[in-house]
Amino acid sequence: MDTRLNVILVIATTLLVLAGCSFQSYEAAESKGSFDDNFSIMWSQDHFTTSKDGQIWYLSLDNDTGCGFQTKQRYRFGWFSMKLKLVGGDSAGVVTAYYMCSENGAGPERDELDFEFLGNRTGEPYLIQTNIYKNGTGNREMRHQLWFDPTQDYHTYSILWNTHQIVFFVDRVPIRVFKNNGKANKFFPNEKPMYLFSSIWNADEWATRGGLEKTNWKLSPFVSSYKDFSVDACQWKDPYPDCVSTTTNNWWDQYSAWHLSADQKNDYAWVQRNLVIYDYCNDSQRFPTLPEECSLSPWD
Ligand SMILES: *[C@@H]1O[C@H](CO)[C@@H](O)[C@H](O)[C@H]1NC(C)=O
Ligand SMILES: *[C@@H]1O[C@H](CO)[C@@H](O)[C@H](O)[C@H]1NC(C)=O
Ligand SMILES: *[C@@H]1O[C@H](CO)[C@@H](O)[C@H](O)[C@H]1NC(C)=O
Ligand SMILES: *[C@@H]1O[C@H](CO)[C@@H](O)[C@H](O)[C@H]1NC(C)=O
Ligand SMILES: *[C@@H]1O[C@H](CO)[C@@H](O)[C@H](O)[C@H]1NC(C)=O
């Protein structure tokens, strides 16, 4: 915990110095611009609203349509973070996706890093599914339980992405580590810059234990809430930005970000012991020969 806090403080201090502020909290150092500075609506503008001050965003789903937004910029490597509060009550069938993707469609060559929150019947636990696509191929699902009710309050969901590892964090606890092997391969997305997206949609044909439970439309609209978008990353510029990873000028590309810290390993071990519901690397029925990346150790 201490090391993590120190890292946050160092980053926050750096931001404050850059911003020329003398006394301000880390929260205040995050992007407080308007939605339109960094995001656009992908579909159904009329299912998107904000709080009065514009700092909290709401996406809603009804029997007509869901809604989604995306960043205007693409990024390649960095730290991507946002606070989400998910649909409460009976939300079976409702999926809130929070993800990065190299395209704004489901193209056959896309790279993608997914967080998906699978709603449930009242009182039953939400599951969080993560997946990784390279060049259009995913099938790398993991499912986790959370240690809190994600519909009661905002929690922080983050992705660390560099050329050595991709780590999914929940409130700064690493829940999934996906390693590269340092060679040209077909599993680790590290070439294509990605946008950040979020959307809410109906997935009652697959999300709820294979479609057993149907969305209860009487309860719609279903609303997910967002705030504190925070990105510390290399913003893409064609043909190539200054901040490419080979410079290791940025903390997310440096040696300490190539593997988990000792504290993060403790947290990760706890998650592995207690919260993993499904791991594709443990599914030998589905993969008689386990995928190549499954042999890479998250502890290295
Ligand atoms: C958000 O938008 C502002 C204004 O266009 C821009 O200066 C900033 O770099 C953007 N932030 C990110 C993280 O893309
Ligand atoms: C959608 O919901 C509205 C309001 O509850 C209802 O009037 C309408 O018939 C529904 N439409 C469909 C296609 O189910
Ligand atoms: C990426 O996928 C496309 C479409 O499936 C395929 O034609 C291409 O060879 C793939 N590229 C690489 C580098 O694997
Ligand atoms: C919903 O709750 C049930 C019962 O606790 C659980 O088996 C299931 O994995 C949960 N998630 C989904 C998406 O159905
Ligand atoms: C991994 O597979 C074994 C054998 O099928 C099973 O007992 C175990 O619960 C699985 N663990 C996870 C995390 O899926």
TrEMBL record:
Glycosylation sites: N120
Coiled-coil region(s): none
EC number: 2.4.1.207
Active site residues per record: E112, E116
Keyword tags: Apoplast, Cell wall, Cell wall biogenesis/degradation, Disulfide bond, Glycoprotein, Glycosidase, Hydrolase, Manganese, Secreted, Signal, Transferase
Signal peptide: 1-23
BP GO terms, sorted: cell wall biogenesis; cell wall organization; xyloglucan metabolic process
Domain GH16 intervals: 19-226
GO annotation, cellular component aspect: apoplast
Location within or outside the cell: Secreted, Cell wall; Secreted, Extracellular space, Apoplast
Enzyme class: transferase
CDD domains attached to this UniProt entry: GH16_XET
Post-translational modification: Contains at least one intrachain disulfide bond essential for its enzymatic activity.
MF annotations from Gene Ontology: hydrolase activity, hydrolyzing O-glycosyl compounds; xyloglucan:xyloglucosyl transferase activity
Family: Belongs to the glycosyl hydrolase 16 family.
Function: Catalyzes xyloglucan endohydrolysis (XEH) and/or endotransglycosylation (XET). Cleaves and religates xyloglucan polymers, an essential constituent of the primary cell wall, and thereby participates in cell wall construction of growing tissues.
Name of the molecule in the record: Xyloglucan endotransglucosylase/hydrolase
Organism (species): Lupinus angustifolius
Lineage, highest ranks first: Eukaryota, Viridiplantae, Streptophyta, Embryophyta, Tracheophyta
